[in-house]
Design goal:
About 30% of the residues lie in helices and about 25% in strands. By secondary structure, it is an alpha/beta fold. The strands form seven sheets. The chain has a five-stranded parallel β-sheet, with helices on one face.
Length: about 400
């Protein structure tokens, strides 16, 4: 009987893990099923561009994984039972239950409203494709002079605010940040951010905690009312509650606790990668939710599964940071070089060159996902062969 591997989620980490598993293991030995709710791979790092009105290249999962041995199943995951090794899904045929021998949990994260009143009713998000498309439609209907408030001063908020300001110079764009603008990047990086924001006419409200979101304004804890016909919420991400309800060990925030191989510390047949996993980097610090750390986590999980099934040696992917790539519209960018633990270095790349650099990174990441069998030597090892070798070794020493 084939070893059943189910990968939940076909974002960057899930798709990479599925492709790498197909590359490492013989199709005669394993059955790899990739479960995803949407038929296309979504470039999440570009969703602010989608919201701004740009069209991205469609990447159908069925085409991406054709001929790889990976079965793509379009279904929504509703529950995971780690003790019973089963996954509940809903597809066009109704409810179904999938059984697995090894599970790769890569369902990622979604926008976090932090319990702020009015967010669910009035704010838009760009953490999902449906959310980005809803925002796109709303922005298209705005009249000139309308106010748009982007709440959140992290990477997503900065990229969204600059993208909207460049695409719609007729709108009044404001960024509302809890801290200072880019206060985690280098001094030269912060200076460049302020220069770009000023050039695009973006108003910046720093050190402002949002207490409530209304239909036409954002209220801060300090009593300020910031006009906003549209509010875009970009204050971070949270893990789907499916992980907490699955029975595996999770953190207080709901992330699955994993070891160095990305296996659950409570259920070794469950591997978690990407935003849904609580993993330690090479420096001993927890990895933040990001594509930069998610992809190496997927490599590590796939290689660990292949090694376990074939009695191979467990390799280790470097789980560390090198830079933060920030797009500031289509013409400007900032590449902030960082230490292994994600602390800003003095050096940074700025301007048009940085914009090109970021674009190449995005294209490279998407191309790698869309070509799952390219870029690494074929090292497929038969599970049967590995077991035969192990049995022979035991007999030889008997």
């Amino acid at each position: 009987m084939k070893h059943r591997i189910i990968v939940l989620g076909a974002g960057y980490t899930g798709a990479v893990a599925a492709g790498r598993l197909a590359r490492r293991l013989h199709a005669d030995d394993v059955r790899i099923t990739l479960v995803n709710a949407e038929p296309d791979f979504v470039e999440r790092v570009r969703l602010h561009q989608v919201a701004a009105g740009q069209d991205l290249k469609p990447r159908p999962l069925a085409e991406m994984f054709a001929g790889t041995g990976v079965e793509v199943r379009l279904a929504k995951v509703t529950a995971v039972d780690a003790d019973r090794r089963s996954v509940a899904v809903v597809d066009t045929d109704g409810n179904a239950e999938l059984e697995y021998d090894t599970l790769v949990y890569a369902l990622g994260s979604r926008s976090d409203d932090h319990g702020v009143p009015g967010v669910a009713e009035h704010a838009y998000e760009v953490a999902s494709r449906p959310g980005a498309l809803r925002l796109r439609e709303r922005l298209a209907r705005l009249d000139a002079g309308s106010a748009v408030a982007v709440v959140g001063g992290g990477l997503t908020g900065i990229e969204a605010a600059t993208e909207f300001a460049e695409a719609r110079p007729d709108l009044k764009i404001a960024l509302v940040a809890r801290g200072g603008l880019g206060d985690w990047v280098s001094p030269k990086g912060r200076s460049h951010l302020r220069k770009v924001f000023k050039g695009l006419g973006i108003a910046v409200h720093e050190h402002a905690d949002v207490a409530e979101v209304g239909a036409d304004a954002v209220a801060t804890a300090g009593g300020e009312a910031i006009p906003a016909q549209v509010t875009v919420w970009t204050t971070g991400f949270t893990v789907h509650p499916i992980a907490r309800a699955s029975g595996v060990e999770v953190t207080a925030s709901g992330q699955i606790v994993v070891d160095g191989s990305m296996a659950s510390v409570s259920h070794p047949d469950v591997y978690a990668v990407g935003d849904a996993a609580y993993a330690m980097g090479s420096t001993g610090e927890p990895l933040r939710m990001s594509c930069a750390s998610g992809t190496p986590m997927a490599w590590q999980a796939a290689d660990a599964i292949a090694a376990r099934l074939t009695d191979g040696r467990l390799p280790h992917a470097p789980l560390r940071y090198f830079n933060q790539c920030i797009s500031l519209g289509r013409k400007e960018g900032l590449i902030q070089y960082v230490t292994a633990d994600d602390t800003a270095r003095a050096a940074s790349l700025r301007g048009r060159t940085a914009a090109v650099y970021k674009e190449l990174v995005c294209k490279g990441a998407a191309w790698g996902v869309a070509n799952p069998l390219f870029g690494m030597p074929v090292r497929r090892r038969s599970i049967r062969a590995a077991r035969t070798e192990a049995d022979s070794t035991v007999e030889a020493h008997a």
